[in-house]
Design brief:
The chain has 175 residues and is an alpha+beta fold. Helix content is 38%, strand content 29%.
């Protein structure tokens, strides 16, 4: 019994020693040395849907440099719901309409699985027009689309009013 207690104590001490700002492994691989710029939770009608965290070099968010956005889900979501919502939000932001965004939707369908409670999706904006998506730490797909950084990541990082604006500011480290 003593060896088990000793092992558990050692594990507890080593976990406690991890920095609170430690980024997910996929962020470390894609953006070595990136630090958290901010975090926020998203609720609808009091239901906690996901937690979001943003990461960038030096913990300093900029639309002009690579960054990562991680969503940790507290509720299940179907792939079709994620796709429909993303395309709808991008349409509202002036990125096109359902017809012109259909090729992008096909790319995103490879990126978005059905989500279960506890799943994590990370998207790394590698360039103005490119991103790499990870699902629970494993690389899932790459996306290329003109203006993708602002059109897609703006859903979370460029909220225009009310709670969306507050969430965006927190994620960028502006709040």
């Amino acid at each position: 019994m003593r060896p088990i207690r000793a092992a558990l104590a050692a594990l507890a001490i080593s976990l406690a020693a991890l920095p609170a700002w430690a980024s997910p492994s996929e962020v470390e691989r894609a953006l070595p040395g990136a630090q958290k710029t901010g975090e926020a939770s998203y609720h609808v009608l009091g239901i906690h849907l996901f937690d979001a965290e943003a990461y960038a070099a030096g913990g300093d968010f900029s639309w002009n440099r690579p960054f990562a956005l991680t969503l940790s889900y507290h509720r299940a979501a179907r792939q079709s719901t994620l796709l429909n919502r993303s395309i709808s939000e991008m349409t509202q932001r002036g990125a096109g309409n359902a017809r012109t965004l259909a090729p992008l939707r096909a790319q995103l369908a490879r990126c978005f699985p059905d989500i279960a409670r506890g799943d994590r999706v990370t998207a790394v904006s590698t360039g103005t027009n490119t991103a790499t998506f990870y699902y629970n730490g494993a690389e899932r797909c790459d996306v290329q689309w003109p203006g993708f950084r602002r059109a897609f990541f703006g859903i979370w990082l460029d909220g225009r009013d009310g709670p969306a604006r507050t969430m965006s500011a927190r994620l960028r480290g502006d709040a």
